[in-house]
Write a structure and sequence with these properties.
By secondary structure, the chain is of the alpha+beta class. The protein has three domains: about 220 residues, 3-Layer(aba) Sandwich (Rossmann fold), CATH 3.40.50.620; about 80 residues, no CATH class; about 80 residues, no CATH class. It has a six-stranded mixed β-sheet, with helices on both faces. Helix 3 links the parallel strand 2 and strand 3. Helix 2 crosses helix 7, helix 5 packs across helix 8 and helix 5 crosses helix 10. The longest helix has 29 residues. The protein is globular.
Length: about 425
Amino acid sequence: MTQDKRLIEVLTVQMSDCPEGAIGVAVSGGGDSMALLHLMMQWAKVQNRTLKIATVDHKLRPEAADEAADVAAFCHAQGIAHQTLCWEDWNGQGNLQQAARLARKDLLAQWAQQNGLSAVCLGHTQDDQAETFLMRLARGSGVDGLAAMARKTGSNPVWLRPLLGVSRSELREYLQRHGVSWINDPSNDDESFDRIKFRKAQDMLDGLGLTRKRLAQTADAMQLARHALEVETQNLAQSCVTVSELGCVTIDFIQLAQASEELRLRLLSHAIKWVSGAHFRPRLTALKETYANLVRGTAQTLGGCYFCFQAPDLLLVLRETAAMPQTPVSDQPYDHRWQVEFTKSYDHLLVRSVGKDGILQLDHWRETGLSRDIVLQLPSIWSGRDILAVPQVLKHAEFRLSLKTSPKSFVFSIVSH
């Protein structure tokens, strides 16, 4: 079997369970993504599938626009639709690489939804798998951090990584055989980035037996271990967690305390991510400290969440009021999980938490049976200093706030799919 046929076969196997419909491919113009695009073109022709291509320009390098234009020209020559997605929102604060990754995913997800794409393919390779494993190992990551990137994740769209078992060098050789050029991003040689340091150390690691393939195999083993722990955490949640229609998470603290430390911390971490919408779990030390203080009966805040006891044995995980934004009323989800419905446009109205000033205007909130802590962190619609609507507390004929995320998703989303 030729190398070309082997790569096509690998791709075909990895794409065998992709959903029906048009497929998106994220292409930066680098070697990995250009090889993915070229292979996907052949796969789509055989499978009679439509491809659409997107390039993300983060506006961080002046040459990025020209690189996106090169990808667009290549796609145009092949008769494939292409769109450049621009990131304009970098505020210069925090971790640039992390912010860029999250922005890229958000832009691609929006593009996929706007274009009716069932899945988006990403060009991650075996090298990316090995580099990520080493970087996280150096940071002291546990099972989750060391687990391999999944081949298939998410929904609406589904994210696919069909080349995780293929090395970067194989893909470069493939492109050379087909006369396809690619862009060499200068940041790939910038040793101020940890990933590049690990990449350049790989030849030395190969001599010690820590090859890319071996590292990727270990990451795969960690993925299996992670899945097993997620299933056990899900079983624990099914027995000790209830989630209300207002998105409030209640945990039987006695059952939580009886679980192993690993499962205990996993469940608390998941609750924080689900309630706050955070992309990443809190640091382990902070999570352990929070749990230790909860054992003492002390209310806690962590990761945008507020932990308090509804009863001696019932732990409430709520949104931290101070962490909730204040934004104009729009058709976009508020605080990642609330949908605002309104009959006409209201430019002067705001959405925010009820807060201490808001609850003073709610004369009958006690009649709802909700605790003060729950009411304080509910979303609400305001006109100036006046509160107009609060879910289950204050109704308004022209506005409605409802939980966008189903309470059932709390348990379901524990296991990576």
